[in-house]
Amino acid sequence: MENLFYLFATGAVISAAMCILRRNPISAVMWLVSTMFSVAGIYLLLEAPFIAAVQVLVYAGAVMVLFLFVIMLLNLGVPASDLRGPMSVAGAIAVVGLLLVELGALWAYTPERLAAEAARTAALPPASGNAVLDVAGPLFSTYLIPFEVTSVLLLAAIVGAVVLAKRRI
Amino acid sequence: METPALVGPSLALSGILFSIGVLGVLLRRNAIILFMCVELMLNAVNLTFIAFARLHGTEGHVIVFFVMTVAAAEAAVGLAIMLALFRHNQSLDLQDINLLHG
User: Fold this and answer.
1) Is A138's CB within 8 Å of B62's CB?
2) Which domain holds residue B27?
3) Which DSSP string do the residues of A103-159 spell out, in sequence order?
4) Which residue on chain B is closest to A61 by alpha carbon?
5) Is residue B73 included in any domain, yes or no?
6) pLDDT string in tens for chain A (169-residue length)
7) CA B74, B77, B80, B86 torsion: positive or negative?
8) How many domains does chain B have?
9) Residue B98: inside a domain, yes or no?
10) DSSP code, position A62
11) Which residue of B has its CA nearest to A124?
């Protein structure tokens, strides 16, 4: 399981890096799909099979097809290079280096903290073993109002997308 | 109680993926690639939620569900904005988008 995790993790990091390094937008989308699949595999290893399935269906399926569709609709060419100037590249690398150092510091003290948190929540109610029930139960009881608000959000997104993309209303 | 396996490595992976997303947003000028990097960052955050759900119970999965919904809505509206922008100045290079520049 450990080995499988590191396989998926390496795949995710490499394809994410390729996604931001490829000049051609289409191949960037393909590499991002590969990242999504690797992350879905990691969700499976983390005992979240339902979320893994939704990840493949919604992200790797619907959202990425939307991206591909728009890229092909706009018929974007491959630019010579769309990297920013050397100053902003240096700035970006500095910012991300700082971020990575911060995240590394976080990782250095997590094992003890994770163990402490695990000890504190030892009386966790056992998962029912039904992956769909585990998500659907809270979704329709504790989180009922956010769920309904989400439907309004989706409606607003549909109307907004139509209004924005239409030439003349 | 022992820490559930793979939580720490998952958090590290999530940090790396998020940093790659930030790097992409800061480096590239193509607006669509920028959007894809935002999706990558949202994915990294989802991974954090799933990892912590192993410590704190499965309610984290519900949050991931909401994040995915918001990401899908954001992609739809964002790509519609891309279409409108492309129609306006025939390019998606962020350098050319300076309507408010005066």
Assistant:
1) yes
2) 7-92
3) HHHHHHHHHHHHHHHHHHTTTPPPP-S-HHHHHHHHHHTTTHHHHHHHHHHHHHHHH
4) B72
5) yes
6) 788 999 999 999 999 999 988 888 889 999 999 999 999 999 999 888 899 999 999 988 888 999 998 888 887 766 666 677 778 788 888 888 888 887 777 666 666 677 776 677 666 666 667 778 888 888 888 899 999 999 999 999 999 999 988 877 6
7) negative
8) 1
9) no
10) I
11) B57
**Predicted-complex ipTM score:** 0.89
CB contact under 8 A, B13 and A42: yes
Nearest-Cα distance to chain B for A99, in Å, is: 7
- Give the residue carrying structure tokens 């393909």: A30
| Residues B23 and A92 sit within 8 Å (Cβ to Cβ) | yes
- Is A139 in Cβ contact with B86 (below 8 Å)? no
What is the reported pTM? Answer: 0.87
- CATH code at position B66: 1.10.287.3510
For A70, the closest chain B residue by CA position comes to B79
Q: Judge: A46–B29 Cβ closer than 8 Å, yes or no.
A: no
